[in-house]
Amino acid sequence: MTSPPQESASDLVRWAAFSCVLVPVVLVLCGTSLGGAAGTALGLAAVTGVCRVLMRQSERGAAQTRAEESAPHRGRHGRVPSGGHRGGRHSGGTSPVD
Q1: How far apart are CA 35 and CA 44, in angstroms?
Q2: Left if phi > 0, otherwise alpha if psi is -120 to 50, otherwise beta: which for 65?
Q3: CB atoms inside a 10 Å sphere around CB 84
Q4: In angstroms, rounded to a whole number, what is the distance separating the alpha carbons of residues 20 and 45?
Q5: How far apart (Å, rounded) are the C-alpha atoms in residues 98 and 90?
Q6: If both were cysteines, with which of 1, 13, 37, 44 could 24 make a disulfide (CB 3.0 to 4.6 Å apart)?
Q7: pLDDT tens per residue across span 30-89
Q8: Which tens digits make up the pLDDT trace of 6-26?
Q9: d(Cα 64, Cα 77) in Å, to the nearest integer?
Q10: Are 56 and 50 in contact (CB under 8 A)?
Q11: DSSP helix/strand/coil, 12
């Protein structure tokens, strides 16, 4: 079963920008004053801007979550698996230290 394609934030922002232009035009055609239509356009633009920021932030968070889920686990506390430790005693030469 496949899920329907999801719209990206940029698609939604394009539609919102279109409505920011269309709504004031329709308001003027219906007899609203230019000032009222301009105020409506500014309000819609502000809401669109805030929604765009929130959607981008949400997309980044979702992408980060997917990346963390697909990354290989490195053990407890993200440490390198045993055998990969650095430092400590080295096996090897028995040269005396002066």
Answers
A1: 14
A2: alpha
A3: 9
A4: 6
A5: 18
A6: 37
A7: 999 999 999 999 999 999 999 889 988 988 888 888 888 887 666 566 555 555 555 556
A8: 667 778 888 888 988 999 999
A9: 19
A10: no
A11: helix
- Pair 48, 17: CB distance under 8 Å: yes
| Tokens standing for residue 6 | 């999801």
Q: For residue 53, what are the CA distances in angstroms to 20, 47, 57, 67?
A: 17, 10, 6, 21
pLDDT at position 29, please?
Answer: 95
Residues in the chain: 98
Residues 6+ apart with CB under 8 A from 52: 9, 13, 16
Q: Record the tokens describing residue 17, joined without a space.
A: 């920008």
Type of residue numbered 64: Q
- Three-state SS for the chain is CCCCCCCCHHHHHHHHHHHHHHHHHHHHHCCCCHHHHHHHHHHHHHHHHHHHHHHHHHHHHHHHHHHHHHCCCCCHHHCCCCCCCCCCCCCCCCCCCC
